[in-house]
TrEMBL record:
<feature type="binding site">
    <location>
        <position position="482"/>
    </location>
    <ligand>
        <name>3-phosphoshikimate</name>
    </ligand>
</feature>
<dbReference type="GO" id="GO:0070403">
    <property type="term" value="F:NAD+ binding"/>
</dbReference>
<feature type="binding site">
    <location>
        <position position="402"/>
    </location>
    <ligand>
        <name>phosphoenolpyruvate</name>
    </ligand>
</feature>
<dbReference type="GO" id="GO:0008977">
    <property type="term" value="F:prephenate dehydrogenase (NAD+) activity"/>
</dbReference>
<dbReference type="InterPro" id="IPR003099">
    <property type="entry name" value="Prephen_DH"/>
</dbReference>
<keyword id="KW-0963">Cytoplasm</keyword>
<dbReference type="InterPro" id="IPR013792">
    <property type="entry name" value="RNA3'P_cycl/enolpyr_Trfase_a/b"/>
</dbReference>
<feature type="binding site">
    <location>
        <position position="329"/>
    </location>
    <ligand>
        <name>3-phosphoshikimate</name>
    </ligand>
</feature>
<feature type="binding site">
    <location>
        <position position="659"/>
    </location>
    <ligand>
        <name>phosphoenolpyruvate</name>
    </ligand>
</feature>
<feature type="binding site">
    <location>
        <position position="334"/>
    </location>
    <ligand>
        <name>3-phosphoshikimate</name>
    </ligand>
</feature>
<dbReference type="InterPro" id="IPR036968">
    <property type="entry name" value="Enolpyruvate_Tfrase_sf"/>
</dbReference>
<dbReference type="GO" id="GO:0009423">
    <property type="term" value="P:chorismate biosynthetic process"/>
</dbReference>
<comment type="pathway">
    <text>Amino-acid biosynthesis; L-tyrosine biosynthesis; (4-hydroxyphenyl)pyruvate from prephenate (NAD(+) route): step 1/1.</text>
</comment>
<feature type="binding site">
    <location>
        <position position="430"/>
    </location>
    <ligand>
        <name>phosphoenolpyruvate</name>
    </ligand>
</feature>
<dbReference type="Pfam" id="PF00275">
    <property type="entry name" value="EPSP_synthase"/>
</dbReference>
<dbReference type="InterPro" id="IPR006264">
    <property type="entry name" value="EPSP_synthase"/>
</dbReference>
<feature type="binding site">
    <location>
        <position position="482"/>
    </location>
    <ligand>
        <name>phosphoenolpyruvate</name>
    </ligand>
</feature>
Length: 763
């Protein structure tokens, strides 16, 4: 129960939305009194009998006196007449002039116009609103107090509205469980025209088209599921939609015009039998539908950062088995990029179907590349050549993926057209000037438009910016493969040679894959050069399993008892094997077998057994070679005997989260003594076993507790592994990002003996 916000709320219209809102206000105790107006007398009588209303009438003047909030829940076209009655009540002193007025209609500009027409100037209490909620059934009897819980409500904060009115209405909606979003009325109407009004119009239209055929009985008799799914919404109230179509006329007409253009394009592709273009279009649409599927599955317009999943992990103390780990993230990204820019077709196997790599895939589809799949890790990319990308119609959305954004910046800086790159909240906080600044020295016109050198990035195409990019010599201040790759990729279009010098070795997948596609790359120690103007030739790419994902289970086996785990065909590129070197220095029992080469990258089966880990000082040259594995290495260090010291790892602070601070916070929650330093972490290991001790009788080193992952996939997975040496249950919040790099992590972990239960609280 809340405290009442209002003295008397008057609901005008007791249909599904009005009655549900009234019920939610009543059940939550948000108003001292509740009255309603509805021409349908039985609804009023029943609502009074049910104790929902204190009073009600068909006539507004009978009940409105003293209301400090009026909710208009009548069809759009009837709102103006209600405003006339309200004005009369204000004029004759029944209502205060600052009484708050709101509505629940699905169009907003016409509500504001109606208010202007009636009141002259807009009342200070007017706050137009639109709850994005509904149900199949309509009317008073269909009401549900929970209808708005976790649904969004769009409110239009007009310049004329008092702050009190806005604050109180926001509070009311939040108190009934809704998420409140502010939006300009025009923007609201344009968005709704596309997302709601156009689909309803098309559904009505398709049913009309089929019903008017002479053989309509047959058509409906044999109508397949597609027809039923597509036209379900044509069963809704015609009067309501008639009113909405007129009320939002101009936005709907322009959405319809745009639809016509798309329909014509598709028609032409079918006439021309243009298979590649049609596959491109269908694949793009399918991918976009999947990409947004999780948003569509939840409530429209809900704040996705509020969607969360958690792991509840029961301690287990042993793992065993032979498993395959999903494909390498870095190589998957690059396969899409180079495959798209190549001439000819590229077939990829082992592609990682995680959200990060899928963001790259979607970006290239948005730029006109036809990509078939992914289907079980298989992709077919129809390369468009070095100059074949087309401008995307919308900003390219990189999700959580720093690799996508940084590498694409290099490619896009060289294209003829303008681009905008954006990402999720976490990515939009990560430093982008590290690529933007050196790209500018090549002549790129690129602006980091977020706060403090962050995305969204706005990139001006060469058509506007002028001459081609120029080769450059760049000494990288940090050993970042993303920065290196960004510049090398930009260098493919630059005049002259681009040379990047790195302070330490970083992962070299870009260099290897460029060579595999036939592009000359010169590597002289830490100096890497490419000369612009070459071409790439498509071919086959086999993506090995990701050693960064394998690392979670490597540590899992090392810290738990009676464990032996084999991870098959994992990439062991020497620029990525820092985790193996560090674990070996910590005395881990690791061996490699079945070494081979696939697609220019070395692979091997990695076997790891229960180990007597000891603390070490981690050599700084290994830091870039294990940069993504430190979260889980900190878990290993906690289980080792003695102290582990990491230095020279400031980069960890600008990953998907500040991995030094966030890991330290979590380790301390689980009872580990650790000290954060500027560029690393000191961990007091709690392992007790000696080199000759009994590995297979290891005691828990972690307690249990509640861990916040800060929406960082590797933090979530690292603390899952800690459960193998925990005394009690560990709960990890914010694990939905695990899908960015390791789809199926929890299932695979459970398969080898862990016990992770996934709870999703998104609807
Ligand atoms: C990556 C490089 C690394 C790594 C990231 C992937 C890549 O980042 O952390 O997960 O694919 O090039 P930095 O190069 O910025 O260290």
């Amino acid at each position: 129960m809340h405290r009442p916000i209002f003295e008397q709320v008057c609901v005008i219209g007791l249909g599904l939305i009005g009655a549900s809102f009234a019920q939610a206000i009543k059940d939550n105790g948000l108003s001292e009194r509740l009255v309603a107006v509805d021409s349908h007398a039985p609804s009023i009588t029943e609502a009074i009998e049910h104790g929902l209303l204190d009073a009600g009438s068909a006539n507004l003047q009978d009940v409105i006196s003293g209301s400090d909030l009026i909710i208009i829940a009548v069809p759009v076209q009837a709102v103006q007449a209600v405003f006339v009655d309200i004005k009369q009540a204000m004029d004759n002193g029944q209502l205060a002039a600052d009484c708050i007025l709101t509505d629940v209609c699905s169009t907003k500009v016409n509500i504001i116009d109606a208010a202007k027409a009636v009141f002259g100037s807009l009342p200070v209490g007017l706050v137009p609103a639109h709850p994005i909620a509904g149900a199949e059934n309509s009317g008073y009897h269909a009401r549900r107090a929970s209808l708005f819980v976790n649904h969004s409500v769009i409110i239009c904060e007009l310049a004329t509205t008092s702050n009190v009115a806005i604050t109180k209405l926001r509070l009311l909606w939040e108190s009934v469980g809704a998420n409140v979003i502010s939006m300009d009325a025009g923007h609201h109407d344009r968005i709704l025209a596309h997302t709601s009004h156009l689909p309803h119009l098309l559904a009505f239209n398709l049913v009309e088209q089929l019903a008017s055929h002479d053989d309509n009985l047959d058509i409906f008799r044999y109508a397949a599921g597609g027809f039923r799914d597509f036209t379900r919404i044509a069963a809704s109230d015609p009067k309501m939609w008639h009113d909405i179509f007129f009320a939002n006329k101009s936005a709907i007409v322009s959405a319809l015009d745009e639809y016509g253009v798309y329909l014509q394009t598709m028609r032409q592709l079918i006439i021309d039998k243009d298979s590649t273009a049609l596959m491109g279009l269908l694949g793009r649409a399918q991918a976009a539908r999947r990409h947004f599927g999780h948003m569509l599955a939840s409530t429209p317009y809900t704040d996705t950062s509020a969607m969360s999943a958690s792991y509840n992990i029961t301690p287990s103390n042993t793992v065993s088995g032979t498993i395959a780990i999903p494909g390498d993230k870095s190589i998957s990204h690059r396969s899409i990029m180079l495959g798209s820019l190549a001439t000819g077709v590229t077939h990829v196997t082992g592609f990682l179907e995680g959200e990060d790599a899928l963001a790259t895939l979607q970006a290239f589809r948005d730029m006109g590349v036809t990509i078939e799949g992914p289907d079980n890790g298989n992709l077919t990319i129809h390369g468009v050549g070095m100059n074949g990308l087309k401008p995307s119609k919308t900003p390219l959305y990189m999700g959580n993926s720093g690799t996508s954004m940084r590498l694409l910046s290099g490619i896009l800086a060289a294209q003829s057209f303008d681009s905008v790159l954006t990402g999720d909240t976490s990515l939009n906080k990560r430093p982008m000037e590290r690529v933007a600044a050196p790209l500018r020295t090549m002549g790129a016109v690129i602006q980091s438009t977020g706060h403090s050198g962050t995305a969204p990035l706005s990139i001006t195409g060469r058509d506007t910016a002028g001459k081609p990019l120029q080769g450059t010599e760049y000494n990288m201040p940090v050993a970042s493969a993303q920065v290196k790759s960004c510049l090398l990729l930009a260098g493919l279009w630059a005049e002259g040679t681009t040379t990047v010098t790195q302070p330490e070795i970083s992962r070299d997948h870009t260099e290897r894959m460029l060579s595999a596609f036939g592009y000359p790359v010169i590597v002289e120690g830490n100096r890497i050069s490419v000369t612009g103007g070459g071409t790439l030739t498509g071919g086959d790419i086999a993506v090995p399993a990701d050693i960064s994902s394998a690392a979670f289970f490597m540590v899992g086996a090392a810290i738990s008892q009676n464990s032996e785990l084999t991870l098959t065909q994992v990439g062991i590129n020497p620029t990525r094997t820092g985790v193996i070197d560090i674990l070996k220095l910590m005395n881990a029992d690791i061996s490699l077998s079945n070494e081979a080469h696939v697609g220019g990258e070395p692979v091997a089966d990695i076997t790891i057994r229960s180990s007597n880990l000891v603390g070490i000082e981690i050599p700084e040259h290994l830091v870039p070679l294990a940069i993504d594995e430190f979260p889980v290495l900190f878990v290993a260090a906690s289980c080792a005997k003695g102290r582990t010291v990491l230095t020279g790892a400031k980069e960890l602070r600008v990953k998907e989260s500040d991995r030094i601070a966030v890991m330290a916070e979590g380790l301390q929650t689980l009872g580990i003594d650790c000290t954060v330093t500027d560029d690393g972490l000191i961990i007091e290991g709690k392992g007790t076993a000696t080199e000759n001790g009994d590995i297979n009788n290891s005691q828990p080193v972690f307690g249990g507790g509640h861990i916040v992952s800060h929406h960082d996939h590797r933090i979530a997975m690292s603390f899952s592994v800690a459960s193998l040496r925990a005394a009690e249950q560990i709960t990890i919040e914010g694990v939905e990002t695990v899908n960015t790099s390791f789809p199926g992590f929890a299932e695979l972990a459970n398969q080898i003996g862990m016990s992770i239960q996934v709870d999703t609280d998104a609807e």
